[in-house]
Amino acid sequence: MNVFGAIQTLLNHQYSFAAFRLPGQSDPQLFYDGVFVKQKIEDPSPKDAFILAPFIESDSCPELAYVEYKSFDPKKIFSVSNPKSGFQPKIKSPHILEKEVYLKKTEQLIERMQQSELDKIVFSRVMPKDIPLNYNWSAHYARLCEKYPEAFVYFIALDKHHFWLGATPEILVSYANDVGETMALAGTQSIHNKGDEGFLWKQKERDEQAYVRRNILESLQQFQVKWLHQGELKTKIAGQVAHLLNHFRFAMSYPNTPLSLARALHPTPAVCGQPKHTAKKLIIESETHQRSYYTGFLGPIDSAGNTRFFVNLRCMQVIRDQAYIYVGGGLTADSNPEKEWEETELKAQTMLAVFSK
Question: Which pLDDT does position 60 carry in this prediction?
């Protein structure tokens, strides 16, 4: 049995699990026969876990850890015990924003930035899609892995009616062999805009990415990481869109850890805005849906401190026979509401393009 067959078995038996394929790897990993617990893993982590953290924590949407699991090995007999009773978030369908309302809210936010209340805010919305009850989700996940080889592609089943799937391009914190990595990823345009001399980036996109880069650089410096190195600015392709990107490499300084750094960086200006606290408050006031685990972070951590956390972008939440695709974009004082709507439509194609006919 391969990993996708194991996922289908788990789905048939309505068991929770966490599957993920790291960027550049060929085969997904599967954690199963464990339990999602409503607790923050201690720092440093005393045990292996898969972390699922929300954009904003609440009693109904806490940071979760999948623990006490088995790792799938195709060379061993695959078997599952009775499902353990873990934390099951309250399932609430997100509010869908009509285009006219989205444009009006976007225009109001741009006006506030023109009055210098803040430099950037990330405004999001949700797109619904009907799903057949007998839809083959394991085959869907296989297509996600095949289509996006350089993304972190995951499939999380919180319970029998509640899934999260995504293919995110953005590292929050990666740490292994005493070397850490994070990135400043922002600015968006269609991959079809590439010309003979590459992509042409407007000042609006460059400014948006610069906000993120400066904030992450300052956060790393405040965290007193060692031998901090900033990579050159380049373009990264992610599905149907291109972004501007800087990599950062560093080493941790005692007593800080990769997990504490991830919690300090989150949420970055790439998913929130700048200044962070002002933008977060305005997001709560302006968005009519709860982001839940969209723009949170997720990934595995082990007791040795090795960490692979990614920002939860290009993702969808599945509740029974409905998929909800979360998309957003960074607004600045120079943004155009209609173009921002078009950007969210483009970003949604990362998830929509994988559905079978």
Answer: 86
C-alpha span between 5 and 231 (Å, rounded)? 40
Q: Which has the higher per-residue pLDDT, 88 or 309?
A: 309
Q: Please return the burial class of 1, using the count of CB atoms within 10 Å of its CB with bins 0-12, 13-18 and 19+.
A: exposed
Q: pLDDT, tens digit, for every residue of 125-146?
A: 999 999 988 899 999 999 999 9
Q: Structural domains in the chain?
A: 3-84+95-352 (3.60.120.10)
pLDDT digits (tens, 9 = 90+) for 90-100: 778 999 999 99
